[in-house]
């Protein structure tokens, strides 16, 4: 959905959930700003039983001039109602009758959503979604520093002080926004009330420890989600603890925070594993978090309450995650290739970028992709490969020319997220597709490969700190000429990338 599609309506009401947090307030604020720019006269409201009272949020409302109004008994039936950071009809937002309804959110849909919707469940905050939608209308939220600070704070709080940011669009917004840093600090230092300090103490005191797996489980009373991060950060200081999961259960959400201090457990992967099909989770290797949707949890049992179901699901999924993976260290391992098929690369047109065409030789650049940020120093022979799904990785010229040949045809591909490069010295960022040339795979070195029937974490020869995961049906492969060059190939990509050697 584009925001300009909503300009045909005049009577517009923006509504966030009944207990608005910083992300909901920032998202509604940004929509209010956009429609006002477009010469509309929108209203921004929240309803429910309680008015905003948390210290950090009252500071946000006052100092950032957030134009929201508390309307517990809102009787007007608007021409268009936009629910933001929530979904119309859900339990955390009082239903407001309207002629037309639109939804802008970053949580997974719990039920059918209307046609006018923009729901991106893989984004860290609703503020990021609205920021991107406004940018797509060729407007810049930096025109108003109060607004840009609010958007930043929305993402900041919804990702536990940015520690759980995973999507590159979130990182793009962080890099783009011009903010009042002192105000962010002021709001952050007013985040915990004395009551929440007591909640933190009780929760940590009642921890559960699992010595074989070396993980700690903390069940808290409902609180500000950021406090879960405080609990798990503190718990990870304990010598015997490698992994910590802290969570709370409320009527509207089950929030959890994940921390890991060992390379064998990626916090973001564990968070996604806990939330699979029940909500959403993400972050990075050492800090992550997520949410489980109560309605989805309640479908799992007819004779248990929400608290009991959530407890059981989180415990079971952590145990399953710890039990199911085989860990392989490629530098010390060899695979039995006697039952594996020999393959060579299939004919695929891919893209490549000579990085010196983008920034000068000697520059250190940050490559931003869906898989994360990668830093590379540009040398004369440094290239960037663009795979079939937009995945990118650095490659040296000698290896590139051995495996691929350049084509005269232009490279024309569109991806959900276009890879980009940032010069770390100047801060300048450029998209890479404009510099991309087409190449065709030559076949080249061959591999032995076969599907896996279990779950694997593989530490490759070229990266001993970060593992690559394989699920049943994915392929594990090893180069014919190097028994320790072992890697994982996704099931959905394998037939596209490789063909059997007869």
Shape: globular
Radius of gyration: 25 Å
Biggest sheet statistics: 6 strands, parallel
Mean pLDDT: 91
Pick out the low-confidence regions: none
Percent of residues in β-strands: 25-35%
Portion of residues in helices?
25-40%
Please give the count of helices. 13
Strand order of the largest sheet: 3-2-1-4-5-6
Number of strands: 29
- Structural class from helices and strands? alpha+beta
The end-to-end span amounts to 49 Å
Notes on the structure:
The protein is α+β, with helices and mostly antiparallel strands. The protein contains 13 helices and 29 strands. The protein is globular.
Quick tags:
502 residues; alpha+beta; six-stranded parallel beta sheet; six-stranded mixed beta sheet; 29 strands; 29% strand; globular
Layout of strands and helices, then pairs:
Blueprint: E1 12-15, H1 22-37, E2 43-46, H2 55-63, E3 69-70, E4 80-84, E5 100-105, E6 117-119, H3 126-135, H4 145-158, H5 168-176, H6 181-188, H7 194-205, E7 208-210, E8 215-220, H8 225-235, E9 243-249, E10 254-260, H9 267-275, E11 279-283, E12 287-292, H10 294-298, H11 306-324, E13 325-329, E14 341-345, E15 349-354, E16 364-369, E17 372-377, E18 382-386, E19 392-396, H12 397-403, E20 404-410, E21 420-423, E22 429-431, E23 437-441, E24 447-451, E25 455-460, E26 463-470, E27 475-479, E28 486-489, H13 491-497, E29 498-500
Helix pairs in contact: 1-3, 1-4, 2-6, 3-4, 7-8
